Amino acid sequence: MRSTIIQVSEIHNALEELKFQGDPLADAVVAELVSSGATEVVNEVLAHFRDNDQPIPENLPEPVRRYLVVTDDPPGWADLERVANAYEFFVDDGVHVASVLSFGAMVNCYAQPRPSRVLSLTHRLNQPHRRLSETSQFVLNMMAPSPFGSGGSFVPTIQKTRLIHAAVRHFITRSGRWDVAADGVPLCQQDMLGALLIFSVQVIDGMRRIGISVTEREAEDYYYVWRVTGAMLGIPAEAMPETLAEAQVLNAELVEASYGPSPEGIELTRNLLRLYEDMIPGKAFDGVAAAVVRQVVDPEVADWLEVPRSRVWGRAVGTGVRLMRLLERAEDRSRTATAVLDKAGSLLLGGSVRTLTNGQPTALTIPAELREKWLAAGVCPARAAR
Q: Where would one find coiled-coil regions in this protein (predicted)?
């Protein structure tokens, strides 16, 4: 018993230390770029660096080139066959993953006061469309047939994401508006680990909550891809649980235990719900997005973030979830059930494709093979963008 207590204590101490850890590799690159005044040039070059197969651009400062070389490959322990298994899961249920991610995971992120405060300091409280489209694109690139290999575009996405995170840490810590001693490093490794658990463990839980069947093998493989991704994002491998069951425990102890109300989280959620309502034409369906959020997230979290209640839409969504469960059980036997289920799941991803920014469309790039399979199945939301 005593050894168990000591082990648990050591784990908690290690997790607490993650609050004060950034990403030394990416942080050093950003610090050098800022000091040399080369950030704009690098941004312009990297904007065209999008595919795994592209050679690393020659016209980059040497520190950036070294960083791109060092971060170019997945960790040696990564099993690419398991990664391929997750792609098959995403072919079948990707639109549902996107819906739960958008209605549930995004909101759960806002239930964490510290990361929400980081967003407020980067002036992104009023830009939910941008965060939604960036997150959706990240997941789409991750769920390509070979995200880390030839034909994919996920590796440059990860590399640029690490640099963006490092830039946020750099400028916030030097803004005079963040107390590292009290609050830890902004966008620290603990925050990164928490986001990984929200986008993996909680997405699987959310899918099951609305009646989507996810097998244990599918859930394990989906989490595994996120674990490989986390390593490439700079999260220490030893901090990420090896199995989904262990990740579920850590999610409860690290992420859900950190939930609470904050002015920033409330405003982020309000703006996100407004975005969803704007996606749905007319006023007749006002309130349905909030009702879906309340179905996917914990009721206490919804209350903390002041997600509106609607008796009418709450009942309607609850009935819809029960219908989803019935249709899911019939999906393999009924083409009609399949069509209804997939149409419901594709609503939000289709909306993401049509998201407007100052009147201009924000298009998501769906990997070619995934797009072809979704089109063949009649569920590809990219049709709506044409």
A: none
Q: How far apart are CA 289 and CA 279, in angstroms?
A: 10
List of long-range contacts for 359-363, beta carbons under 8 Å, 24+ apart? 361/385, 362/129, 362/130, 362/133
The reply to whether 43 falls in a domain is no
Whether 195 is in a domain gets the answer yes
Q: pLDDT for 223-250, tens place per residue? A: 999 999 999 999 999 999 999 999 999 9
How many structural domains compose the chain?
1
| Verdict on whether the full-model pTM lies above 0.90 | no
End-to-end CA distance of the chain: 62
Lookup: tokens for 357? 């920014």
249 lies in which domain range? 79-150+176-370
Residue 42 within any structural domain of the chain: no
* Angle ∠(297,300,303) on CA atoms, nearest 5: 95
- Domain contains 109: yes
Position 154, amino acid: F
